[in-house]
């Protein structure tokens, strides 16, 4: 079967695109690694119109329910590996070897946490190394943890850990903690948080589970070890566009370049929306609007293509 449209990504941008595609009665499917995206990482969104405050998981759940109610087909555990063009049709392959043929594509694959790329990190992910404090902070009861990254998301991880961990080290590579000053003050008042600046993480220590973090003091050059059982990594996000890097034009940050009016990428018939693109503002409401734009553009493209 050749679909009218395949949407890649099941979060704010992709689910909004699905709502619009369903209302336009397109023959489409949404493929996603997991429904929810980055919104799963925050328990309070206070700037999405219609909700004074809502948790990220609840917000995307509502979007998913709306798309399903309109008849959208959503397939999870479908991580897209590659996109090819064969004549006028695109072929999408997922990591489990499935192939999907389609006339148009919307890429809404967002961003994912950037790894530290230090020894021990990969091996101990899920065994003490975490990229989601909301999900995992309760696992570290009465033990010391480290948060790598002193920006706002690092401070959010520290805040999430306060009710559970016995001690929280926040490590910042630069000379100053850059996250919100008010949150820093609140964290200091807990008496549980220690800020360490000029710290370069060198290694995650541990055999089966994390039992330490080794860092270098960038001023003295001295190597030190913190005896922690959990490590939250908050060193930024990277666009999930690797699977189209040889196919579509990306900017220097690795984001998909789009025409900001139509969401068209450098390849006709492929549209992109949300955090994976080169739009300036990365927010749920923006991603949802971009998903809607991309779906309407895909619809217009299909209408034009079907005209004699
Ligand atoms: C800690 C934190 C707090 C935030 N707080 C707010 C806030 O208060 N308000 C706000 O508006 N925004 C907030 N944001 C930003 C907001 O979450 C993002 O702007 C929004 O999630 C972007 O949506 P998206 O659909 O573009 O991408 P994402 O949310 O990144 O979702 C990408 C989707 O694509 C899927 N995917 C990725 N690669 C593939 C692939 N190869 N194949 C198939 N599927 C794939 C993922 O599984 C996911 O479903 C926050 C972000 C973080 C990290």
TrEMBL record:
Annotated ranges, domain FAD/NAD(P)-binding: 3-291
Pfam short name (any one): Pyr_redox_2
Taxonomic superkingdom: Bacteria
SUPFAM superfamilies with a match to the protein in the record: FAD/NAD(P)-binding domain
Identification of the protein by name: FAD/NAD(P)-binding domain-containing protein
Membrane-traversing stretches: none
Matches recorded under Gene3D superfamilies: FAD/NAD(P)-binding domain
Matching PANTHER family: THIOREDOXIN REDUCTASE 1-RELATED-RELATED
GO molecular function terms listed in the Swiss-Prot or TrEMBL record: oxidoreductase activity, acting on a sulfur group of donors, NAD(P) as acceptor
Keyword Disulfide bond: yes
Protein keywords: Disulfide bond, FAD, Flavoprotein, Oxidoreductase, Redox-active center
């Amino acid at each position: 079967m050749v679909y009218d449209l395949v949407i890649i990504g099941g979060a704010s941008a992709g689910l909004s695109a699905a709502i619009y595609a369903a209302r336009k009665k397109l023959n489409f499917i949404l493929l996603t690694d997991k429904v929810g995206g980055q919104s799963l990482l925050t328990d309070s969104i206070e700037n999405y119109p219609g909700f004074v405050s809502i948790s990220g998981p609840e917000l995307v759940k509502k979007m998913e329910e709306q798309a399903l109610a309109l008849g959208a087909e959503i397939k999870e555990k479908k991580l897209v590996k590659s996109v090819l063009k064969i004549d006028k049709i695109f072929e999408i392959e997922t990591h489990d070897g499935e192939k999907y043929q389609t006339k148009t594509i919307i890429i809404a694959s967002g961003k994912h946490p950037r790894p530290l790329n230090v020894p021990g990190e990969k091996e101990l992910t899920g065994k003490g190394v975490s990229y989601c404090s909301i999900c995992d902070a309760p696992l570290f009861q009465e033990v010391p943890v480290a948060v790598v990254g002193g920006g706002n998301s690092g401070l959010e991880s520290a805040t999430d850990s306060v009710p559970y961990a016995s001690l929280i080290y926040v490590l910042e590579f630069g000379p100053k903690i850059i996250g919100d000053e008010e949150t820093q003050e609140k964290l200091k008042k807990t008496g549980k948080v220690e800020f360490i600046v000029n710290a370069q993480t060198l290694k995650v220590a541990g055999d089966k589970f994390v039992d330490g973090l080794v860092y270098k003091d960038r001023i003295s050059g001295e190597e030190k070890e913190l005896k922690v059982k959990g490590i939250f990594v908050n060193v930024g996000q990277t666009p999930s566009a690797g699977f189209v890097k040889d196919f579509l034009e990306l900017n220097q940050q690795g984001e998909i370049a789009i025409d900001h009016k139509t969401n068209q990428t450098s390849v006709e018939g492929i549209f992109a929306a949300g955090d994976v693109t080169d739009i300036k503002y990365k927010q749920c409401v923006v991603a949802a609007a971009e998903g809607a734009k991309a779906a309407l553009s895909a619809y217009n493209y299909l209408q034009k293509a079907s005209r004699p």
